[in-house]
Automatic annotation (TrEMBL):
The lineage of its organism: Bacteria, Pseudomonadati, Campylobacterota, Epsilonproteobacteria, Campylobacterales. InterPro entries: AAA+_ATPase, ABC_transporter-like_ATP-bd, P-loop_NTPase. GO terms for molecular function: ATP binding; ATP hydrolysis activity. It comes from Malaciobacter mytili LMG 24559. Residues 3-234 form the ABC transporter domain. The keyword ATP-binding applies. Keywords: ATP-binding, Nucleotide-binding. This is ABC transporter.
Amino acid sequence: MSIEISNLNKAYKKHKILENLNLSIKEGSVFGLLGPNGAGKTTLVSILNFLIPKDNGIVKVFGFDLDKHANEIKSISSYVPQTYAFYPKLTTYENLEFFGALYGLKANELKKRIEYCIEATSLEKYINRQAHTYSGGLKRRLNIAIGLLNNPKILYLDEPTVGIDPQSRKYILNVIKNINKEKNTTIIYTSHYMEEVEYLCDEIAILDNSKIILQEKKDELIYKNSLIKIIFENNTTQEISIKEDYEQLVCLFYKIKQENLKIKHIDFGHKSLEDMFLNLTKQDLRD
């Protein structure tokens, strides 16, 4: 496991943000961490990256204890925040050089890491341009490039596609997939874009009311929510869950045959991840 969390607690002024939270994340996975506003996602990621302390509980990252091995965990982890985390008046290369030096990279090692980060995020054409001149998509890619400098075993990405166009978003998602595939990097991905999580992640957890209310492999979650939607010629529709309503499905097809009902179209699919999410967390506004 890349991350193992047992009975993690965090409160602010007696308000519980995380309560006896348990979570395990496999090495090499792209893990989607979902939750409505105020659910505790940011708090959890901040604890894992030493930005805030936990109250109590056990956290291990690649076998290292969060309380005892901070330096070891920091050396194999990288956090890419939602905000831009670079100097706008520096070029791509200058930013990478600066942050690489902060990681303690020197000479040939620093040069190799910068070359890799530029290639991984396709920033070759922009290495000598100041970052403030970039489009939103390029700024997001530079954010990720900086996050790759220390060759992390685990990479935290917090809303990495906010505010960019669909083409740039799809490109960044493929960059993330390639990083995971080529380096076997464990990626913790938080986003409010459910279609991104469905496209990218192989396991999903939903955090709400300070606890993990669901953790499951994406394929198994989709299978359990598979649907058949039948549209009749009179434009009425019938939706049936393949897994849970098998007997109902059999009865419906028997009824169709017996009553000679006319079918216009049959769709085979599944509930969207957004539908599943709203069903679990309810649809109340979270401010």
